[in-house]
Design goal:
Elements: H1 8-19, H2 37-41, H3 46-62, H4 67-111, H5 116-137, H6 143-170, H7 178-207, H8 232-244, H9 257-265, E1 278-280, H10 284-287, H11 292-299, H12 311-322, H13 326-333, H14 346-367, H15 380-387, E2 401-409, H16 411-418, E3 433-440, E4 446-454, H17 462-484, E5 496-503, E6 506-514, E7 520-524, E8 528-529, H18 538-558, H19 567-572
Parallel strand pairs: 1-7, 4-5
Antiparallel strand pairs: 2-3, 3-4, 5-6, 6-7, 6-8
Helix pairs in contact: 1-4, 3-4, 4-6, 4-7, 5-6, 6-7, 12-18, 13-14, 16-17
Biased composition (Acidic residues): 212-223
Region (Disordered): 153-181, 203-229, 410-437
């Protein structure tokens, strides 16, 4: 007992609760029994309160360095899992009892049939069925025996129906009532379904280590989780990667970024960006891992060292922003600078030409008789080709670089997934696919930008969450790691990789940067939407300006400051390029995710 007369576990729970107070959800004193329904009754949103404890508090307890807190977390995890299992099992048993009751009622109707031979046979079988039921019900308290009871009942009824069919040939030629046989078939199908549901429910519960709050109508988890379970093998691989990290980022509090990410990631029960040491700044659960001063340090972003220094481009942008009508915009387009005439040079004037061509293409959207902004038709191809197609031509003036469209494998993703295959393999080289890549060609191929597209813009759709919160980040991580592998470590804080996701008239830019260590920071910019009317065309001009800045920042990284390599090092063929100055900056590979399997 502690000084306050409480057990060490109660004292630890109360201390943690006070430390984690959060508005209406954790404002009460620490409970004595976390299984009591009354604990959550005082919360305004009971489901969210449960979700907070199951997804945040319990993992934090388990990962705590405090021994008592860790014991509390393990006890709660086990207790909640047991409670959830009992609830699901009781529900399955109740459903099975309803089915069995229906079977009994049906048997009673069959026994009242007027044909003596058939009645005698059915009565004898009813007796055998009752005997089998009483035998199996003795051990039906356990879940395995319960499933066995259902299976036995199912098998008995199947045999009964087959034998009933034989009796029809031996009877007076008059079949039982069709309604009775139809109901028997219906009950048999119900038994099949309930048996399958029960077995799947138990298997799913046995494989799960943590309880998630579920929506009883849809079956989806409250937090919208759609990622695969994080297994013990994944946990071991994650720990092995962590132990190999040497270049950790020191935070103002004295902690290291990678240590914080590992402590949180190792307790996860689903795959997460934390397992690739990616900091998603838009994830509130990641924000809660860091102290205020540490988070300020992480959020401090390096300024872009690029700008639009072409006077004609700046002048044209200003004029387009001031134009408030289609006539004014057309007037600007009809008076192009002289340098776009006979004196045009692609290596010097292409960006200016691209600006005029893009505006000319977009202005048609507002002048054509069909309104794409009010139509409810599926216009995925239109938005991809006529609007966001300007991105395909943005990099035409960059040597050996082209925007590649279509569902294809990312080069870096393919390398990561297949690099551990020993020797030559018959396994088809695979990797994560995207709708587009900015790819450079030469002695080797490299990706610099990845693009994902959708039919329309819906931030709440599963496709958006999967791509914007998981797939795109991992692809950008693969690109970032590959592009920075041979760069001078002193320049890496200024290095960024980009990803785009668009749907309908909206596009969003994603950015990945480095803090100077093994971790990367993943940010989402504010979504940009094409103006719905010509009077707001200034918004479109700003979007084109952002695209040009994006291009210049990518081009800046196409010519990196590479590490110096001496002729002797190359002659020796050492795996470490500089023996006297080993490379200390290494971004780990993205943690492998389970392969999608066809159903």
């Amino acid at each position: 007992m502690s000084k306050q007369g409480k057990s060490s576990m109660e004292y630890a729970i109360e201390a943690l609760t006070k430390d984690l107070q959060n508005g209406d959800y954790l404002r009460q004193t620490s409970p004595r029994d976390f299984d009591a329904e009354g604990y959550f009754a005082g919360f305004q949103d009971q489901r969210k309160a449960r979700s907070i404890w199951s997804s945040t508090v319990i993992p934090r307890l388990i990962s705590s360095s405090h021994g008592e807190l860790r014991q509390v977390g393990l006890a709660l995890q086990k207790k909640w899992a047991s409670k959830s299992y009992r609830k699901q099992l009781d529900k399955a048993r109740a459903q099975a009892e309803v089915v069995l009751d229906s079977v009994h009622k049906h048997q009673a109707r069959i026994l009242d049939h007027s044909y003596k031979d058939l009645c005698h046979t059915l009565q004898r079988r009813e007796e055998s069925f009752t005997e089998a039921k009483s035998t199996t019900s003795v051990t039906s308290t356990s879940r395995n025996d319960h499933v066995g009871t259902i299976a036995l009942t199912h098998e008995h009824k199947e045999k009964e129906q087959l034998e009933n069919a034989d009796l029809l040939d031996k009877s007076k030629g008059v079949a039982p009532d069709k309604d009775d046989l139809a109901e028997l078939d219906k009950n048999r199908a119900t038994l099949d379904l309930e048996k399958d549901v029960e077995e799947k429910t138990i298997k799913r519960d046995d494989a799960s280590n943590v309880v998630e709050s579920e929506d009883e109508e849809t079956g989806d988890t409250e937090d919208g989780s759609f990622l695969a379970p994080f297994t013990e093998q994944d946990r071991k691989s994650f720990a092995d990667t962590f132990l190999k990290i040497q270049n950790k980022v020191l935070l103002p509090s004295g902690n290291h970024v990678e240590d914080v990410l590992f402590a949180a990631g190792v307790t996860k029960n689903q795959h997460s960006l934390l397992h690739s040491f990616i900091i998603d700044v838009d994830d509130d659960s990641v924000r809660e891992l860091f102290q205020e001063e540490d988070w300020t340090f992480i959020m401090k972003e390096q300024n872009m060292s690029v700008e639009l220094d072409d006077k004609d481009i700046v002048k044209t942008l200003d004029a387009l922003k001031d134009a408030g009508s289609a006539e004014a915009i057309m007037e600007i387009l009809n008076h192009r600078p002289l340098r776009l005439g006979n004196a045009y040079r692609m290596d010097h004037d292409y960006e200016l030409k691209w600006l005029f061509d893009s505006v000319s293409k977009w202005i048609d959207i507002y002048t054509m008789p069909f309104s794409v902004f009010t139509s409810d038709a599926t216009l995925e191809y239109f938005w991809r080709s006529q609007v966001w197609g300007v991105l395909d031509t943005l990099f035409y003036d960059i040597p050996n670089t082209l925007m590649i469209g279509g569902e294809g494998h990312g080069i870096e993703s393919k390398q990561r997934r297949n690099q551990q295959q020993p020797g030559r393999t018959l396994r088809k080289a695979g990797g994560s696919k995207s709708d587009g890549y900015l790819r450079s060609f030469g002695s080797t191929k490299s990706d610099w930008l990845t693009i994902e597209g959708a039919r329309n813009w819906d931030p709440f759709a599963k496709k958006y969450k999967m791509e914007a919160y998981w797939k795109l980040a991992r692809q950008m991580h693969d690109i970032f790691r590959a592009r920075t592998a041979d760069q001078d470590p002193s320049t890496l804080k200024n290095f960024r990789t980009y990803g785009l996701i668009f749907g309908g008239p909206t596009i969003q830019i994603h950015v990945m940067a480095s803090l100077g260590g093994a971790s990367t920071v993943f940010r989402r910019r504010r979504p940009l939407t094409l103006a719905a009317s010509i009077e707001s065309f200034e918004e479109n001009v700003v979007m084109l300006e952002i695209f040009m800045l994006l291009k210049r920042d990518i081009v800046r990284t196409l010519t990196p400051q590479r590490k110096r390599v001496s002729a002797m090092d190359l002659f020796k063929g050492t795996t470490t390029i500089l023996d006297s100055e080993p490379i200390s900056f290494t971004i780990p590979l993205a943690h492998p995710s389970p392969k999608k399997r066809r159903a």
